[in-house]
């Protein structure tokens, strides 16, 4: 989305409306040392000489995965439903920074793909309270039926 003028208000709006997810990425430092291991000699020896002090300083922690939060533009376009037809999926063992949308049921051509921003099995009032934190009152079919 383009803004005429970037203010803290529209920055916060953009942040709130972006789908963000915890993710784990394999240690880039470990990747670097694996890359060095594959270099031909004498580049490998030269690179090891330069990088060894850093490896010594890091100790075993060089292989720690990076944990953080990522923004996903496609998922950010998806509306919430308390009876969604898809799920934002991130397996614990995935370390490639990818998030996937998995269909929970057959989705017809032209049908809106929806995900749940919250635990959708909660009672109506609790769901609405949680979604109020996202700044909207849910108008999905399930909420309209239960309201
Ligand atoms: C991540 S965005 C979803 C995409 C958004 N509809 C758009 O056009 O950019 C989340 C926003 O969509 C709206 N929204 C999503 N699901 C909704 C729902 N079930 N009922 C009402 N508004 C919803 C709310 O304004 C919410 O803040």
UniProtKB/TrEMBL annotation:
It comes from the Eukaryota. Residues 1-118 form the SET domain. GO terms for molecular function: methyltransferase activity. PROSITE patterns: SET. InterPro entries: ATXR2-like (IPR044237), SET_dom (IPR001214), SET_dom_sf (IPR046341). Signal peptide: none annotated. This is SET domain-containing protein.
């Amino acid at each position: 989305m383009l803004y005429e003028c970037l203010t803290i208000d529209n920055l916060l709006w953009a942040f709130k409306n972006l789908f963000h997810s915890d993710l784990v990425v394999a240690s880039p430092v470990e990747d670097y040392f694996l890359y060095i291991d594959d270099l031909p000699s004498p580049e490998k020896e030269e690179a090891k000489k330069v990088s060894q002090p850093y490896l010594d300083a890091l100790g075993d922690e060089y292989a720690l995965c990076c944990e953080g939060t990522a923004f996903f533009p496609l998922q950010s376009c998806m509306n919430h439903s308390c009876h969604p037809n898809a799920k934002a999926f991130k397996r614990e063992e995935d370390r490639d920074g990818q998030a996937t949308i998995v269909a929970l049921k057959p989705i017809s051509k032209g049908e809106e793909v929806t995900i749940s921003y919250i635990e959708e099995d909660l009672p109506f009032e609790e769901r609405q309270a949680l979604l109020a934190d996202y700044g909207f009152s849910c108008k999905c079919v399930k909420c309209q039926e239960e309201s």
